[in-house]
Amino acid sequence: MPKVHVLKSNNNKSYKLAIHFDTPAGNNTAGFSWKLVGLSSGDIGTTSLKVGTNPSDITQEEYDEIISGDVIEILRENKMDGLVADVRID
Fold first, then answer.
1. How far apart are CA 26 and CA 32, in angstroms?
2. Among residues 5, 13, 32, 47, which one has the fewest Cβ atoms lying within 10 Å of its Cβ?
3. Sheet arrangement for strand 71-81
């Protein structure tokens, strides 16, 4: 299940988020695992967050899962539009 960390709020008009979700299992049509492809391309296996106990920090376990390629991190800034948040990931 995805995990969302709220990193920053701009007076409730926008939020900077780090979204974590499991790397898809299985292989692409060339037979390579999605994890291997992501790590090889540099698209996964890194995080901008640090390990700690502050609200915007991650645990050592989360860090290890991201670095190993088991979990993908996407950074996103969402603007609030009235009562509905723009949560599309393009």
1. 8
2. 13
3. 3-9, 14-22, 71-81, 84-85
Q: Are 12 and 80 in contact (CB under 8 A)?
A: yes
Q: What's the whole-model pTM score?
A: 0.79
The domain containing residue 73 runs over which residues? 3-83
Asked if the structure places residue 89 within a domain, the reply is no
pLDDT band for position 87 (cuts 50, 70, 90): low
User: Residue 90: inside a domain, yes or no?
Assistant: no
| Of residues 9 and 30, more confidently modeled | 30
In a domain, 8, yes or no: yes
Closest CA to 67 of 53, 52, 51, 56: 51
For 47-58, write each residue's pLDDT tens digit: 999 999 987 899
